[in-house]
Fold CDP-diacylglycerol--glycerol-3-phosphate 3-phosphatidyltransferase.
Amino acid sequence: MDRYVVMRENPYLAKWCSRLMDVLVRVSHRVICREEFDKVWSEVTSPLLEEPKGLFQKIVHSVTPVKEQAVSSPTHHRRSDCIILPNESKWCPSEQTAQFTQHCAKLLAEFEKEMSTELSGVALTAFTDTAGEKEKTYDTLLFPTVQFARAHLYHDSHVVQHLLRLLTDQDHLFLTSPYLNMYSDFVEEILHNTNSNQNKSCYFDAITASTITNGWQGHKGMAGRIPYFYLQLERSFYYLMKYYHALHRVRVREFSREGFTFHAKGLWVMERGEQKDQDTTQPPYLVAYGSTNYGYRSVHKDVEAEVFLFTVNQTLRDSLRRELQLLLDDSITVEEERFLGLNGKFQPVVSVMAQMGQNFL
């Protein structure tokens, strides 16, 4: 189960995404098969490097002074028998971090300048464009964001945090992530002000994968234990909700459907309305589609992109509500009993490992 959105006849968004991809391609490593490398690339590149085989070789490799020739050489990935070519800049992200970061920041600054010049004023006139003979108005606004912490770009996380800060007790936010391990600043915004008399914090539902719909379920070895790492993190978040007396407005739901893997990401924002049934929703006016899991790794380690969609079109809002309802129909609200039985109880070793690896999950 995943979420996708198709945008048609929108040259502004297409240009933004295309230019961003151009930047990412320039700082990424091309991967080719060994046969192609032997035929075409072997005579025009530096000598082929082999990955360190054992733990000892990996440690020696990590403490050996970097040589420019070495880091700009292609690397053989033995398990896949593929060749990883140097990126365009020739800077290694792992071993020449400062130079690589500076190069990425420069390219992104050029991207930002170009898009600001070409798209300036588009949002300001989106709903009241009177440039033509006849007034032309729009009912939907798209706003793309990007996150690239290694290049000191925190656009998406700043937008999400500011949105959480703006919401009040008249709003209801649904957030979905297959790996519920929310960034601490987001958690603080969600639980903030709960104990005050003003009670201005929004109502919040998080939809995540159960242990049986987690994408790591069924893997061999330690990878097969990852769903239980997330269960312990979910347990920690639940008791944090309880500690801050937020259970009346903050809920966690587990998506569980036989034969499905849950991988949906994004959010929906709507007015609370007067409904008392917690499993029905109002039509959202703001949604987000993207790659982020809203966790520490998405904020500080990975490259992420989202597009926020704001609309006053009632037909579109009803369609977005139905999309959310499909997820809710197969989701169960998590109660404290979930963490008291044999399958959900506190497991010290798993919990310690989950906390130690929290920034990588």
About this structure: The chain has three domains: 30-43+72-88, 91-126, 138-358. The chain has a mean pLDDT of 84. The chain has eleven helices and twelve strands. Residues 149 and 300 are 5 Å apart (CA to CA).
